[in-house]
Write a structure and sequence with these properties.
Elements lengths: L12 E4 L6 E4 L9 H14 L1 E4 L6 H9 L13 E2 L2 E8 L2 E2 L2 E2 L22 E8 L12 E5 H6 L3 H7 L3 E4 L1 H11 L8 H6 L3 E4 L1 E3 L6 E3 L6 E4 L4 H15 L5 E4 L6 E5 L3 E5 L10 E7 L6
Parallel strand pairs: 2-3
Antiparallel strand pairs: 1-2, 3-16, 4-5, 5-18, 6-7, 8-16, 8-18, 9-15, 9-17, 10-11, 10-14, 12-13
């Protein structure tokens, strides 16, 4: 993709994080309608940096959904019990309880993953709006999210690994993902037959091509990916694990420290992410997540 001088816009400023991915978009109020002149550089920055965020936003549910729709059709999450009442487009990511039950998903993102990869057509992007952010007793922010650059990780792979796995596909399993998360950090939701019926195992390319930039991205997750087409499990699983450990190496990462009012979005092809669970239930966290449909991985 042609790199552009995103700083040239007179309406906004793009400030890269200085890490392997991510940029802050400054000078934009997402409560206002965005004209094409403003939105164009935002979308280019998103494709270029993989993660973009806007600080100090005050937006309604409707405004978040409207912003998401600029990027594509909005997805209705399979976890309908955790959606905002009256707004099935908005998934609540929260450790808050009301009447003895979580109002949203308390375990969302607590292991490395790319959103909904066990779907035949995974989402293009996810957009989080920080409503409440957990803090320690000293006031320091908890609950960071770490992102890792799957394109940069692919570029850094050894040529022989690229050649060996080029064109091969790996099976993504929602059930395996949930069981791996349950074993690693525990689950606060039920794995229902209805959810499993909507998410049968599906095969995707190990090296996925980004639909806009054309960059190759590593598209496997340890624990969620259960095999490689045409390969014995004893050979496939160590390869998947090794690829994923390479992918989440610190040199490819950006760590986001949340503030109330942050709107952050990530590209589910370009990166994977991990929500750090370093807070307790008394330290409230509430995020509104809207997800945008994507394309079949190629």
């Amino acid at each position: 993709m042609r790199r552009v001088d995103l700083q040239a816009s007179v309406k906004l400023n793009i400030a890269p994080t200085g890490t392997a991915l991510g940029a802050e978009v400054r000078g934009v109020d997402l409560a206002r309608d965005l004209d094409a002149v403003t939105f164009g550089p935002i979308e280019e920055a998103f494709n270029q940096y993989g993660v973009i965020f806007f600080r100090d936003q005050e937006i309604t549910v409707g405004q978040q959904i409207a912003f998401a729709r600029r990027f594509g059709e909005v997805e209705i999450n399979v976890n309908t019990q955790a959606c905002l009442p009256g707004h099935p487009e908005v998934l609540l990511v929260s450790n808050i309880k009301e009447n003895g039950r979580y109002i949203g998903l308390a375990d969302a993102g607590t292991t490395w993953h790319t959103d909904m990869s066990a779907y035949a057509c995974p989402p293009r992007c996810s957009i989080l709006y920080a409503v409440e952010v957990p803090r320690a007793a000293d006031g320091s922010v908890l609950g960071d999210t770490i992102f890792t650059n799957a394109a940069a990780a692919y570029d850094a792979l050894a040529p022989d690994i690229k050649a060996r796995l080029d064109g091969k596909r790996s099976t993504h399993s929602y059930l395996a993902k949930m069981n791996a998360r349950k074993a690693a950090v525990g689950l606060t939701r039920e794995i229902t037959p209805e959810h499993l019926a909507k998410t049968p195992p599906v095969a995707h390319p190990i090296f996925r091509t980004h639909p806009v930039t054309g960059r190759k991205c590593i598209y496997v997750t340890d624990g969620e990916c259960t095999g490689i087409d045409g390969m014995a499990e004893a050979e496939a699983l160590p390869l998947i694990s090794g690829l994923h450990q390479h992918l989440v190496d610190a040199r490819f990462q950006y760590r986001h420290r949340w503030r109330v009012g942050d709107v952050l979005m990530w590209d589910n092809c370009t990166c994977q992410h991990l929500a750090v669970r370093d807070y307790g239930e008394s330290q409230r966290r509430l995020m509104h997540r809207v997800t945008v449909n994507g394309s079949v991985p190629l």
